[in-house]
Amino acid sequence: MRKKWEGKAIEGVEEVKSKLREEILDAFDYSEKVSDEQLAGEIDRLILREAKVNFLTLKKKEELRNELYNSIRGLDILEELLEKESVTEIMVNGPDHIFVEENGRLSEWDKHFESEKRLNEVIQRIAADSNRIVNEANPLLDARLEGGSRINIALSPVALNGPAVTIRKFSKDVMTMERLIELGAITTEAADFLKLLVRARYNIFISGGTGSGKTTFLNVLSGFISPEERLVTIEDSAELRIEGVKNIVRLEMRNKNVDGCNEITIRDLVRNALRMRPDRLILGEVRGDEAVDMLSAMNTGHDGSLSTGHANSVMDMMDRLETMILLGTDIPLAAARKQISSAIDFCIHLARMRDGSRKVIEISEILACNDGEIEKNPLFVFKEKGEDEKGAVLGNLVRTGNCFIQRNKMKNAGLVWEEGNANKNVKDIS
């Protein structure tokens, strides 16, 4: 079957690309390392030959050149999406359906993989680059790409409609609190308050749903940590990008190998981190029984620790932590709740709004247990004011009438919070 391309009869685009890729791979001895320049030169030579036969325009030659290079050295058609700054999430549901989240909106992309075989080749390249194995015997994989993006892979037999690949991209530019204020994710007054909390070494937990911006917000808060402190970060897949602190140790869990051995869990890393003389622990996300050791560390001298967790509200996060503790150790429920309320000073809840924007919707103190129940004291809550003509959610994070109760750490740090004065909140009282 021959198709029309720029008005000339040629082979189908995918057939041309597939044919040239095979010629390029046959041209090199892959027992030797082929440089990027050598590969690009061979691609250019073959495209120039093909252009004479199929009358390729300059635009089509450039497109074909990029696609061929990406199919051999990159992630094939996904490279275009990875290079696009506005794309934050890539979802591959088999070779024929690719969805992207761009500027907070989800839509199906008009491109697809030429075959399931080609998609599987890309998946195996990702696994090899991550020094991991993914196959029918081990069909699930969590890894990260070279640029820091997080990737999840699911293969048959667990993925029923073809290989599923989900990529969470992270901006090349480090997010700052000033930028979050510009985007309307938080107010200046609340941002100044959080800066004080971090400097005064309050233990802070960030909760929110999937895609609400928890990791980004954790990165932003870590920017307020003194460069003189020693940090230990613990993650299942390294995503944190903490800058300004030189004395930092980054730990990442390790999955079981093909023999089911040599696993290093988050809980193992938390326990080991306590022997590394950290001033603060930063746990990327609490998902299981590691909550026991993390909260224990917060209760035993590691003030100023930070972590995140999935939940629909502040109190839902406290309930989830209860469950994690009870799964990880055999203690009464009342003891678990007491440990949580004693360890965590503040919980910041984030949400992804219906317009795709991400906002801080609550900042609450976590108080002591009263009649066996953990109490919270909301200091800031988001008040919605409807939508504008484009459907954007309107509203602000406003100060409640509740008093800030737990002031001891702030006082001991020589800091004071002047309520209602957003521009003069950071003050020393020494």
**How does the major sheet shape up?**
9 strands, mixed
CATH homologous group name of the largest domain: P-loop containing nucleotide triphosphate hydrolases
Q: State the share of residues found in helices, binned by percent.
A: 25-40%
Radius of gyration computed on alpha carbons:
26 Å
Q: How far do the termini sit from each other?
A: 81 Å
Please tell me the total number of domains: 3
Give the topology.
Blueprint: E1 2-5, E2 8-11, H1 13-27, H2 36-54, H3 58-73, H4 78-82, E3 87-93, E4 98-102, E5 105-108, H5 116-129, E6 140-144, E7 150-154, E8 164-168, H6 177-182, H7 188-199, E9 204-208, H8 214-222, E10 231-235, E11 248-252, H9 266-273, E12 280-283, H10 290-299, E13 306-310, H11 314-328, H12 333-343, E14 346-352, E15 358-370, E16 373-387, E17 393-399, H13 408-412, E18 415-416, E19 427-428
Describe the structure.
This protein is an alpha/beta fold. The protein folds into 3 domains: 1-73, no CATH class; 80-172, Beta-Lactamase; 177-425, Rossmann fold. Helix content is 34%, strand content 25%. It has helices spanning 13-27, 36-54, 58-73, 78-82, 116-129, 177-182, 188-199, 214-222, 266-273, 290-299, 314-328, 333-343, 408-412, and strands at 2-5, 8-11, 87-93, 98-102, 105-108, 140-144, 150-154, 164-168, 204-208, 231-235, 248-252, 280-283, 306-310, 346-352, 358-370, 373-387, 393-399, 415-416, 427-428. The strands form 4 sheets. It has a 9-stranded mixed beta sheet with strand order 11-10-12-13-9-14-15-16-17, sandwiched between helices. The protein has a 6-stranded antiparallel beta sheet with strand order 5-4-3-8-7-6. It has a two-stranded antiparallel sheet with strand order 1-2. A hairpin with a 2-residue loop joins β4 (98-102) and β5 (105-108). α1 (13-27) packs across α3 (58-73). The N and C termini lie far apart (81 Å). 33% of the residues are buried.
